[in-house]
Amino acid sequence: MKKVFVEGPISAEFIAESISKHLGKTDIGAHAIFLGQVRADIINHQKVTHIEYSAYEEMAHQIFHEIREECFQKFDIICMHIYHSIKQVNAGEISLFVFVSSKHRKIAFEACEWVVEQIKQKVPVFGKECFDNNNYQWKENK
């Protein structure tokens, strides 16, 4: 199975390289991309400076694989990739990259949104929101 986890933030170069690998695929008419970025939220008068992501990696890889397989069954897509950060990602940096390709844009959009929702609901990835005063709290997916 393909590597899903990226240590630290997902770089713009990595994203660009992933997109460029699909440029020669002439059966693709649309790409939908979701980039999850760490926000500098203010929570109880504390500013989030970064999130430390951890995961139960073996189980997470299995669930990512199941989401991928179900997406191909549910939608008429050509390609689908998921990358998620582990370890520290600072506010303003990318922690989730979902990339879906299909013949038509509507399917790409719908499939991409579906994948993101499945990840948030099912994958055992945990985010520790770290504040500017050295306090932290565990992030809740909404």
Which terms would index this structure?
142 residues; 8-stranded mixed β-sheet; 8 strands
Compact overview of the structure:
The chain is an alpha+beta fold.
Structure commentary:
- This protein has 142 residues and is α+β, with helices and mostly antiparallel strands.
- 32% of the residues lie in helices and 39% in strands.
- It contains three helices and eight strands; from the N terminus they run βαβββαββαββ.
- The protein has helices at 12-20, 57-74, 105-122; strands spanning 5-7, 30-37, 42-43, 46-55, 77-90, 94-102, 125-131, 136-138.
- Strands 1, 2, 3, 4, 5, 6, 7 and 8 form an eight-stranded mixed β-sheet that branches.
- Strand 7 (125-131) and strand 8 form a beta hairpin.
- Helix 2 (57-74) runs antiparallel to helix 3.
- It is elongated, with a radius of gyration of 16 Å.
- It starts with a strand and ends with a strand.
- The model has no long low-confidence stretch (mean pLDDT 95).
- Distance from N terminus to C terminus (CA atoms, Å) equals 28 Å
Average of per-residue pLDDT values: 95
The main pleated sheet reads as: 8 strands, mixed
Name the poorly predicted regions.
none
Give the helix/strand layout.
Blueprint: E1 5-7, H1 12-20, E2 30-37, E3 42-43, E4 46-55, H2 57-74, E5 77-90, E6 94-102, H3 105-122, E7 125-131, E8 136-138
Parallel strand pairs: 1-5
Antiparallel strand pairs: 2-6, 3-4, 4-5, 4-7, 5-6, 7-8
